[in-house]
């Protein structure tokens, strides 16, 4: 009987030890899963934040593209109106209350200097801050360059801009890059009839 009792106690102890080992393994597995879940939640939050940023950037880009396309359409409409002759000759406005409100045109032989104010989706269509009031003409070729201070220590000649639409204060043109220059035009780059750095 005593042997049976010892055997029974031994079995109970072995069973208890086995249960303790199983409990320890289960606790370890639960803790591992909890850490993995926390890591997955952190990754999910990071991805959600990146997605929100990308969506905001997409909306901003779409707004800018829509504004640029609207401006291009307005310039095209104004150009068509001007070409049709309904815009009137470029002379002082009739019945202008003050002389400074009249449209003026800069002589074509004077040098002009302006800035890039808009860039098309493909990077080749540029809008500039010069128009026919500044002496810019359809078909004219202007120089595009970047002065020091915008990521460069020296002036960078970017290429030429061939004007194909002219408005009183702005113009649109096709940009042609210089071979071997890896810079693209950016808003704020300089445009002039002559590339002169003083």
Can you describe this structure in just a few lines?
42% of the residues lie in helices and 19% in strands.
Structure notes:
This protein is α+β, with helices and mostly antiparallel strands and 198 residues long. It has two domains: 1-83; 99-192, Thrombin, subunit H, CATH 2.40.10. 42% of the residues lie in helices and 19% in strands. It contains one helix and six strands. The chain has one helix spanning 2-84, and strands at 113-119, 125-128, 141-146, 156-166, 171-177, 190-192. A six-stranded antiparallel beta barrel has the order 1-2-5-4-3-6. Strand 1 and strand 2 form a beta hairpin. It is rod-shaped. The model is unreliable at 87-104 (pLDDT under 50).
Report the strand count.
Answer: 6
Assess the beta-strand content as a share of residues: 15-25%
Query: Could you name the ranges where pLDDT drops below 50 across 5 or more consecutive residues?
Result: 87-104
The name of the CATH topology of the largest domain is: Thrombin, subunit H
Overall pLDDT, averaged? 77
Q: What is the CATH H-level superfamily of the largest domain?
A: Rod shape-determining protein MreC, domain 1
Main β-sheet description = 6 strands, antiparallel, barrel
The coarse overall form would be rod-shaped
